[in-house]
Design goal:
The protein has one helix at 148-157; strands at residues 3-4, 9-19, 26-31, 39-43, 47-54, 63-65, 89-95, 100-105, 117-123. The chain is mainly beta.
Length: 169
Amino acid sequence: MTNLAFAGEYDLVIEKKPINLTGRDRVATTINGTLPGPVLRWREGEDVTVRVTNRLDEPTSIHWHGIMLPANMDGVPGISFDGIAPGATFTYRIPVKQSGTYWYHSHSEFQEQAGMYAPIIIAAAQPETYRYDREYVVMLSDWTDEDPHTVYAKLKKQSGYYNFNKRTV
């Protein structure tokens, strides 16, 4: 996972890239060519600018999950903006008003399920009262070689399709 150091300005490129996570070749939707995308590191109190270039053949978006920001920067197509057209660049401007660990992901089609997600680490404005030698970012996700549209269709027909023994708590 690539880290982007504190910068205040970031450039992200959304595109398809071949990957092999399970022994089978597949195409993923990546951010800056990686899956998951790069860790964004922000500071509480700074204003962040994120330029997102769409190299896909379909619209894309980035939703800043859990981040308090202006509605038109929330990244939900059809609600807060039109989405990012193929070949276009959209600039998000985010006044950072909080600290903590969050994530960003697509709200377009099944791009998140195809790999378009990554963490955000926001440092507090005040220095931390504890010391540590190193930091680890752990981001859990799942992967299937099945096309996300196929997974969705199966679950719409039978919600327990992937529950092998069918019993749940």
